[in-house]
């Protein structure tokens, strides 16, 4: 039987790993001691705002990277800033394993390929938010299916996900789709500045106008870098921009029909802030600013959010800005 290991079993790692277990996969999770203790005592339960819960009682949860030994497929779910370390751990314990990068941003596959066999690295996209709600329980509050670069050696993983009810599709334009996801994830920085659930920000028109400015700027940067931006949850970011600029009454209708987000959903960046962890903003707004500079452009809107979020993590608490205050940051 194919051995699947999830390296970095936090919220996303537990979500992916739990569905693989529920789908009949032979799965080991590797993560922090607090999650190991919680899951040993409470089991692992995954809840979704549209689907029935998934419960896993027998979970092989380890704390050491030595548990990578013998892995055929590794689902990498560590934060982007930890990719270098993860690559070295994989090289030490499972150098021939196929590595699926379920991580934010567009840089991680390049980092992994610098250390591991190039053909073993498989980029992927997680389009939804997952938040811990109680010990051993993780909640998904937004819609979407996993996206993985088409590869012949990951059929057992695809099969287990589908059996568990977790949607997944294989992409032939994964870099373009990763750009689309990164552009949509620019919302994470804005959400961190509000300090509230995603929906609370998105129902404010000035918040949406600020996000639309960041998205529009990022699309210009992608074009200047020769990138054909793909789709996120079946739609290009250009469609998102149009939706964001709708008046409030129209946006509320669209939110109910298309932009499916429940009241509990938050960004992982806000979770990181409140948990005292490092920010991934360098791989989102920071990536847009860097790629703009390489193309001889500037990205002032994304630079403003980058600076504000860096200040927020320095202060260790959200400034709880309104949408109007965030838009003012961009205009100034």
Report on the architecture of this protein.
The protein has helices at 11-22, 33-42, 83-93, 108-113, 155-164, 174-184, 187-194, 198-202, 205-224, 237-244, 248-257, 268-275, 285-294, 300-315, 323-331; strands at residues 3-7, 26-30, 44-48, 54-56, 60-62, 73-76, 98-101, 121-125, 130-134, 137-140, 146-149, 168-171. The strands form two sheets. The chain has an eight-stranded mixed sheet, with helices on both faces. It has a four-stranded mixed sheet with strand order 4-3-10-9. A hairpin with a 5-residue loop joins strand 3 and strand 4. It is of the alpha/beta class. The chain contains 15 helices and twelve strands. The N and C termini lie far apart (58 Å). Helix content is 46%, strand content 15%.
State the share of residues found in helices, binned by percent: 40-55%
Low-confidence stretches: none
**Main sheet overview:** 8 strands, mixed
First and last CA, distance = 58 Å
Determine the CATH topology of the largest domain. Rossmann fold
Dominant shape: globular
CATH superfamily descriptor of the largest domain: NAD(P)-binding Rossmann-like Domain
**CATH A-level architecture of the largest domain:** 3-Layer(aba) Sandwich
User: What's the number of helices?
Assistant: 15
SSE order? EHEHEEEEHEHEEEEHEHHHHHHHHHH
Rounded to the nearest angstrom, the radius of gyration is: 19 Å
Question: How many structurally independent domains?
Answer: 2
The computed structural class is: alpha/beta
How many strand units?
12
- Summarize model confidence as the mean pLDDT: 95
> Could you tell me the strand content as a percent range?
15-25%
Q: Strand order, biggest sheet?
A: 5-2-1-6-7-8-11-12
CATH class of the largest domain: Alpha Beta
